[in-house]
Amino acid sequence: MIKSNVTGFGISNLLSPDDLHRFVAEIIDIPGEIIIFAVNSNYELIAYNYNFVVYFNSILNKIPNYHLSVIDFLESAHTNYDLKKNVQHALSGNIFSEIGDFIHKDTKYVYKDIFKPVFDKQGKVLGAIAYLTDFTEKNRDKDTWNVLLNISEQVAKSTKLVDLLATLHENLGNLIDVNNFYVALYNPKTETYQFPFMTDELSIIPPDKFIKIQNGLTDYVRTTGKPLIANRKTIEELSAAGIVKQFGSVAKAWLGVPLKSSGNIIGVLAVQSYTDEDCYSEKDLDLLTLISDHIAIAVEKKRSEEVLIQNQKQLQIAQSVAHVGTWEYDFENKQIFATDEAFRIFGFSPHTESLARKQFFEKIHTDDGKAVQKAVLEMLKNGTPLDIEFQILPAPEAVPVAVHLRAEMVKIDYHKPYKIIGMVQDITRRKMVELNLKKAKEKAEEADKLKSAFLANMSHEIRTPMNAILGFSRLLIEDSIEKTQKAEYIEYIIASGNNLLNLIDDIIDVAKIEAGQLKISKSVTDVNKILQELKLSFERQKSTKGKEHIDLRLVKNSLTDLFLISDPFRFRQILNNLIGNALKFTENGYIEFGYEVKAERLILFHVKDTGIGIPGDKLEIIFNRFGRIEDNKIKDPGGTGLGLSISKHLVEELGGKIWVKSTDNGTTFFFTLPDVRAESQLNSEFKSHSINEKIGFQKILVVEDNPINQRLIIDSLERFSDTIEIKIADNGRKAIEIYMEFNFDVIIMDVRMPEMDGYEATKYIREKFQKPKNNIPILGLSAHAMKEEKDKCLQVGMDDYLTKPFVPEELVQKLNDLTRGTARNTRRNTETTVDVNDQDNTTSKALNKNYKFLDITILELTYKGNRKKMSKILEMCVDTIPKQMLEMENSYLANNWRMLRTSAHSLKTTFTYLGQNELKDKFKSIENESLLERKPEALYNETKTAVDRIWNGLNDDIQKFITETNQNSD
Questions:
Q1: Are 877 and 959 within 8 A, CB to CB?
Q2: Most CB within 10 Å of its CB: which of 8, 338, 401, 819?
């Protein structure tokens, strides 16, 4: 046993360092004469405070080596209760208190005792703590000591500082007037005060707010370090003398004491009365002064615990984000303990308590099991640190997870193994990147070979027409050449020149594609006219190639006219390449090309031939650059192998897809383009709304927490007027503050927001404001299209309702209707004329590029193709989404249902604008679960996995769009 008069604690070496720490952490050296001691399960004394030494020093000195049983030091005392029985009760896991007396040296002592168990990490009882409070002396106020004991007991029980202070407030209420009570904690770095607990008849300061109250009564007590009791006259005298300033309502009586801990004043405890000048006495001052140090120590402990809990949460989040977990193996109980992230990586539930060694090794992939066992044995034998990468199977049929595991062994007295402590990291993504890099390297090497073959082929392709041009040009200069021969030579020269130009065009296009400079210029494209011109062109080419016998067929849809918004030049280039290839490899039969209109708002084009076909093992490479197929059935077909690669790129740039089917009897190429008709060809159901009236509003308050939605609303309104004045509030509470100061023509109110949502804000405006401000038009905005949502908006006082994503014209039309009175009073009617489900049918489909993850249909529609503004919104998405994900993570871990619902709602809206319906639906489900205050663990993990899977690709698509926009603007 080690005794310390410096710290006031005694500590035993009978427990491991971890377990001993649990005892010491439970002992608070409360000022006064409370005796505190701790015992293990064998009743041996483990730790004690200074008061224990003072009272029982004579007994302690008699015990050799201080291996002392808790029963020994009271063996000579007569007691009317069984101390051993009480300790046994605490060792059974119970917290309780009891009043008893005992006689020591002919003096009778009366004590109130509190007993509580101490647990290890697995919930096993390590021992017990006892708090013994002397009620013997006559001048000792029993009620005061009850307050102190309750503080001590609440420190052990409460998990939050506010709970501790609430108990203090309740107990003090038995002694003095605490109707107006607060604890103010001082932050020396910011020179501000925080009020973690406050109850007041006239004002309340939120517990999360930090305010400066320099030279106030509270600050005066803190800076002087002395308690103060004052009535109104005293306060006014101090104020007149410039000693203090008055903040808020002036009390008739005020009493405050400094809170001191470890020599520092951490804050002030105060009570006040607005009605009774004689409310507090010197006795009350003595009472608060007596308990203030006890309170300060308890507050400091709770604050430290809350900081520790917050740090643990932040560590948990950091581990989750980095996919890193920590673990340890205990040699004594042969169990593996780990953080939630480590258990998740190992393939177990994050809430698993511990694992047997066998359970862990069963998860290791069979290919890696022997290597891991060998490395572990090497560490046990030689103490070599473990550093190994291997695969884990989370479930029998699951995809293997690659992990990096590092560990070191901890020994006691440098020889006996005590624990293995280590980390594990999920490196699956890194391994995938390495694999992709390897594949990319192999692909690059293959491309290098193809380029070499291409250059050799290019040399041949260039020389062939050049030889013809130069050879026939030399012949033309001879005078003996007849006119018919000259005409024939000129035809050869022209044909060779055209071939050379086509070759050069292909090379230039490839260079532009590689540099990202190939531009698409969309305009009205007359599909039927281009197809007819291609048919006439290839009819002529059949003759020059000696293939007049091949039947060239054009199959058109029943539409007499088809005008698309596309790039007519590139559209012609795609078909020219495909039909030219078909003619090159077809010796007999026919070539057919044409299109049909599909229900999925697509136009399906095809080019079919009865040529030699493409071998099955070559289908994957024909769209690769330089992927030229050689076949002995065709003698030197010519070409560079660039045409199909260029065509694939052009189709995808125009928003479509291309593929091929082939047999020995021929080949068919298919490609799609979006069915986006030119304005003159659109059916009325796909035309955008138009605003024929003037804007009927000027000043608008937009209440919306999502910065992306804020930007979209502002841009949508400014399209129709450059004089509109817009103010933004990101929650209902701020909206009310702004509305108190300014007047507006109309309010756009989002439904789901933090702090105060749209329902509460609307209800407040309707009920708390006076006319005419309580009758301002309010348009509700929500991502929900359910009738119940619309009804609720109208019931709380909104005038109309619009779903997100919205059409700018429809937003402006509704605002016009509201401000001109044509849609007022709809809140009195539960039926609404807005059919949000028809929104997609009232807007034209956007000119969407075929990105793999990004769909810009909604943004195209909102900004009428203004790519610069679309790029700004997409940049906001890239910046906002990670922050929203972190907010949702924190809310999820803290079981903060309201913030979880708000974060999921924002993410749902953001991914809606990006066309990511899969993620939109998942966040919508999380939002619905949080409404029921249920923790959607499986759904949450599934959503995180989906975001991890999609985000990189989506981000790449966004960056591609932004880069293309910047290049085109240059």
A1: no
A2: 338
State how far Cα 740 lies from the chain centre.
34
| Residue that the structure tokens 């409404």 belong to | 931
User: How does strand 563-566 pair with strand 125-134?
Assistant: unpaired
Mean pLDDT (the chain, rounded):
78
Lookup result for tokens 């006319």: 771
Cα distance between residue 299 and residue 168, in whole Å: 11
Instruction: Name the residue among 137, 41, 144 with its Cα closest to residue 93.
Output: 41
Q: Is the dihedral of CA 885, 891, 892, 893 positive or negative?
A: positive
- Rounded to an integer, what distance in angstroms lies between the CA atom of residue 387 and that of residue 332? 23
- Give phi and psi for 856, each to the nearest 5: -100, 20
What ranges make up the beta strands (E) of 13-83?
Answer: 35-40, 45-49, 78-79
pLDDT score for 476: 82
Find all residues with CB under 8 Å of 334, minimum gap 6, and list them: 356, 357
Q: State mean pLDDT over 376-391.
A: 85
- Comparing CA positions, the residue from 184, 173, 134 lying closest to residue 287 is 173
Q: How many CB atoms lie within 10 A of CB 137?
A: 9
How confident is the model at residue 673, as a pLDDT?
93
H/E segment holding residue 404: strand 401-412
CA dist 10 and 53 (Å) reads: 8
First and final CA of the chain: distance in angstroms? Answer: 80
For 705, 724, 811, 820, 863, the CA distances from 714, given in Å and listed in that order, are 13, 9, 11, 21, 11
| Burial of residue 413 (number of CB atoms within 10 Å: 0-12, 13-18, 19+) | exposed
CB-CB neighbours of 783 under 10 Å: 23
CA 763 from chain centre, in angstroms, equals 31
**Residue 855: closest CA among 965, 953, 942, 943:** 953
Answer whether 115's CB lies under 8 Å from 89's CB: yes
638 with 648: CB under 8 angstroms?
no
Q: What DSSP character marks residue 197?
A: E
The Cα–Cα gap between 185 and 944 comes to 39
Tokens standing for 576? 């020219």
Is the separation of the CB atoms in 703 and 729 below 8 Å?
Answer: yes
User: Are the CB atoms for 597 and 675 separated by under 8 Å?
Assistant: yes
Q: Which residue has the tokens 């500082």?
A: 161
Secondary structure string (H, E, C) spanning 231-291: EHHHHHHHHHCCCCCCCCCCCCEEEEEEEEECCEEEEEEEEEECCCCCCCCHHHHHHHHHH
Among 449-458, 492-501, 727-736, 791-800, top mean pLDDT goes to 727-736
* Helix, strand, coil abundance in the chain, percent, nearest 5: 45, 20, 30
Number of H helices, E strands in the chain: 26, 32
Answer yes or no: is pLDDT of 944 > 80.
yes
How far is 135 from 139, CA to CA, in rounded Å? 9
Within its chain, how far is the Cα of 784 from the centroid?
A: 21
Report DSSP letters for 89-135, one per residue: HHHTT--EEEEEEEEETTEEEEEEEEEEEEE-TTS-EEEEEEEEEE-
Whether residue 465 has a cis bond before it, omega within 30° of 0: no
pLDDT at position 74, please?
A: 53
Between 890 and 825, residue with greater pLDDT: 890
Torsion on CA atoms 685, 686, 687, 689, rounded to nearest 10: 80
What pLDDT digit, counting tens, does each position of 835-880 carry?
A: 333 333 333 333 445 577 888 777 877 777 788 888 888 888 888 8
Query: Encoding tokens for residue 602?
Result: 């697509």
Supply the angle between the helices 161-172 and 282-322 in degrees, to the nearest 10: 160
Q: Which of 892, 968, 949, 912 is nearest to 784 (CA)?
A: 912
Question: Do residues 185 and 297 touch, judged by C-beta distance below 8 A?
Answer: no
